């Protein structure tokens, strides 16, 4: 197997600036609404080492019938199983195949039963490269995608008993990072997103050493019909919109949390396909540059 250092040189970074991966996961997962997956260790960057994946059923969307069916089954004492297809899906006959023939969805592999950690908390422990029988580069490129279900997942005319599809991002360590970025690196327009800015890393002279109340941002979304939605029409008017001010967390660190659909007030029949953001000072004038790093994020449609 190639050394991790070699893999890092060969792997194109999929997500921006995840040097503080573990720290930001903890921030995003403080609300049970979004705490579907946590990991032990929380700052996980080496898929050749042991990983515990913990799923909180309480944080799943209970408005979905199949999720409510799963919650009911777990409450009744049924076991919960791991069902995965990425970075690699094992074929029929493999010891870790998702389910047994002829209808694997209705007969999960007992090897993949999850450990109950607490009230609606279930875990599975693995070394990803060994579990999926692949290399670290493939794990970095494809992430771990899975769902959880009961042994008989329903289907075939019966109601499904399962979670929604879940994704655990696995990224190599990043030695350099931009002063501003969105986290996670891949998201949909109804996901909770964090805008992160470290003024200590700022290289634009006019943006250095900013006060706690002097960090704002311009935001623009491109929708599925190619129209643009802006909170402020231009950089000169950003200061008129309180939602565009970033919150200081001390020591030059600033954060803002938002759900793109809600933030840009997107009509139900449309989706956000791209977001453009740049960090700036409230007062933007000619002369000294007061705009920092541009962020352009293409949204996932999965």
Q: Short summary of the structure?
A:
By secondary structure, this protein is α+β, with helices and mostly antiparallel strands. It is built from six helices and 15 strands. The protein folds into two domains: 4-168, no CATH class; 180-298, Sandwich (Immunoglobulin-like), CATH 2.60.40.
Structure description:
The chain is α+β, with helices and mostly antiparallel strands and 302 residues long. It folds into two domains: 4-168, no CATH class; 180-298, Immunoglobulin-like (Sandwich), CATH 2.60.40. Helices cover 14% and strands 27% of the residues. The chain has six helices and 15 strands. The protein has helices at 4-10, 21-28, 65-75, 128-131, 136-142, 260-263, and strands at residues 37-40, 51-56, 81-86, 115-118, 121-126, 144-149, 166-168, 180-183, 193-198, 216-223, 228-230, 247-248, 253-258, 272-280, 291-298. The strands form four sheets. It has a four-stranded antiparallel beta sheet with strand order 1-2-5-4. The chain has a four-stranded antiparallel beta sheet with strand order 8-9-13-12. A four-stranded antiparallel beta sheet has the order 11-10-14-15, with no helix packed on it. It is elongated and about 65 Å long. The two termini are 31 Å apart. Mean pLDDT is 83; it is low at 1-34.
Task: Return the string of H and E elements.
Answer: HHEEHEEEHHEEEEEEEEHEE
For the record, the count of structural domains works out to 2
Share of residues in strands? 25-35%
The residue-averaged pLDDT reads 83
Radius of gyration, in Å, reads 22 Å
Shape: elongated
Secondary structural class: alpha+beta
> Order of strands across the biggest sheet?
1-2-5-4
Largest sheet descriptor: 4 strands, antiparallel
Which spans have pLDDT < 50 for at least 5 consecutive residues? 1-34
Give the beta-strand count.
15
């Amino acid at each position: 197997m190639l050394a991790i250092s070699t893999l890092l040189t060969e792997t194109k970074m999929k997500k921006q600036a995840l040097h503080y991966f573990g720290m930001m996961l903890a921030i995003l997962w403080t609300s049970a609404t979004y705490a579907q997956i946590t990991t032990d260790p929380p700052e996980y960057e080496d898929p050749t080492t042991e990983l515990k994946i913990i799923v909180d059923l309480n944080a799943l969307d209970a408005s979905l019938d199949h999720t409510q069916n799963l919650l009911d089954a777990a409450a009744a004492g049924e076991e919960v199983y791991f069902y995965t297809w990425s970075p690699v899906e094992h074929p029929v006959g493999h010891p870790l195949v998702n389910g047994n023939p002829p209808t694997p969805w209705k007969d999960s592999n007992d090897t993949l039963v999850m450990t109950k950690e607490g009230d609606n908390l279930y875990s599975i422990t693995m070394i990803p490269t060994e579990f999926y029988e692949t290399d670290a580069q493939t794990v970095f490129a494809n992430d771990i995608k899975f769902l959880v279900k009961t042994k008989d997942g329903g289907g075939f005319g019966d109601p499904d008993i399962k979670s929604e599809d879940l994704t655990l991002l696995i990224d190599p360590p990043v030695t350099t990072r931009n002063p501003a970025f969105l986290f996670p690196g891949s998201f949909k327009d109804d996901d909770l997103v964090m805008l992160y800015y470290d003024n200590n890393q700022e290289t634009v002279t006019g943006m250095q050493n900013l006060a706690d109340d002097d960090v704002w941002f311009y935001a623009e979304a491109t929708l599925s019909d190619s129209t643009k939605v802006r909170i402020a029409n231009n950089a000169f008017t950003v200061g008129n919109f309180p939602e565009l001010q970033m919150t200081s967390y001390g020591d030059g660190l600033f954060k803002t949390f938002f759900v793109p659909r809600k933030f840009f007030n997107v009509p139900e029949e449309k989706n956000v396909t791209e977001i453009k953001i740049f960090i700036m000072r409230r007062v933007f004038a000619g002369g000294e540059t007061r705009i920092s790093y541009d962020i352009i994020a293409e949204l996932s449609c999965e």
